[in-house]
């Protein structure tokens, strides 16, 4: 959602079957909360298809990539690497430093007394699955904890992105959507891109609460 820098989310590790829903939701959360691109491990093709489908219907821009070289992606990333981990520094204490490092600092945060904005840099936000290698902790410019309590990659990512963008991502516009949800106190109204009603009181026509179409995702509750 930024002109001069790219915010990329890397899902590190994926266990087919067991992690399908979580990996899909990492992608949906990255898209909805302002990242430009998500990278999934190449064994997460089902999740990639689901997130691409949501982007086709609800808009973008947002890119989904499948890669098998996660270690190399992190090692060679030319920009700032944030690794989300319960062991990291408290997000509320480092968010300003992260914004400054990638050139997202608002007036008064950056540049000390001059208030000058810092140079835009790309940002890689890494979330793990089962286990991540120690090398990731060492390569990361920031190891960041969203609380130092164990929870989930989806929750950690959501809070981190919202802190990074200071809430601005909530107001973003979506390009090339073929449908849009009309926010309302009660009801589920979805209209076509041109504003024509699709299904008043319905669910957008795909039968699912999150737009991922019933049956798209294997159920990995365990
Ligand atoms: C099931 S957890 C694995 C827990 C792992 N032992 C760790 O280092 O956080 C999966 C992922 O959720 C994210 N996560 C869990 N708790 C977090 C927290 N408190 N702050 C930030 N990220 C968290 C991390 O990216 C982690 O790799």
From TrEMBL:
GO MF term list: tRNA (cytidine(56)-2'-O)-methyltransferase activity
Binding site for S-adenosyl-L-methionine: 84, 128-132
Catalytic activity, as annotated: cytidine(56) in tRNA + S-adenosyl-L-methionine = 2'-O-methylcytidine(56) in tRNA + S-adenosyl-L-homocysteine + H(+)
Major subcellular location class: cytoplasm
Keywords: Cytoplasm, Methyltransferase, S-adenosyl-L-methionine, Transferase, tRNA processing
SUPFAM superfamilies: alpha/beta knot
GO biological process: tRNA nucleoside ribose methylation
Catalytic activity, EC: 2.1.1.206
Compartments where located: Cytoplasm
Gene Ontology cellular-component terms listed: cytoplasm
Annotated region (Disordered), positions in chain: 184-222
Subunit structure: Homodimer.
PANTHER family, per database record: TRNA (CYTIDINE(56)-2'-O)-METHYLTRANSFERASE
Record-stated family: Belongs to the aTrm56 family.
Functional description taken from the UniProt entry: Specifically catalyzes the AdoMet-dependent 2'-O-ribose methylation of cytidine at position 56 in tRNAs.
Protein known as: tRNA (cytidine(56)-2'-O)-methyltransferase
């Amino acid at each position: 959602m930024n002109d001069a820098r790219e915010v990329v989310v890397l899902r590190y590790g994926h266990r087919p079957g067991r992690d399908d829903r979580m990996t899909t939701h990492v992608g949906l959360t990255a898209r909805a909360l302002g990242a430009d691109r998500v990278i999934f491990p190449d064994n997460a093709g089902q999740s990639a298809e689901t997130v691409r489908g949501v982007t086709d219907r609800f808009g973008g821009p947002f890119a989904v990539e499948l890669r098998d070289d996660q270690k190399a992606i992190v090692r060679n990333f030319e920009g700032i690497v944030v690794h989300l981990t319960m062991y990291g520094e408290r997000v509320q204490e480092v968010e300003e430093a992260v914004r400054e490092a990638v050139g997202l600092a608002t007036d008064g945060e950056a540049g000390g007394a001059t208030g000058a904005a810092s140079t835009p840099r790309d940002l890689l936000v890494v979330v793990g699955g089962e286990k991540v290698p120690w090398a990731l902790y060492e390569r990361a410019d920031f190891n960041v904890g969203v609380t130092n309590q164990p929870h989930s990659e989806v929750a950690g990512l959501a809070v981190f992105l919202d802190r990074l963008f200071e809430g601005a991502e909530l107001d973003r516009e979506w390009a090339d959507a073929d449908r849009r949800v009309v926010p309302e106190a009660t009801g589920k109204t979805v209209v076509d891109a041109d504003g024509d009603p699709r299904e008043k009181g319905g669910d957008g026509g795909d039968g699912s609460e999150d737009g991922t179409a019933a049956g798209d995702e294997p159920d990995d509750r365990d």
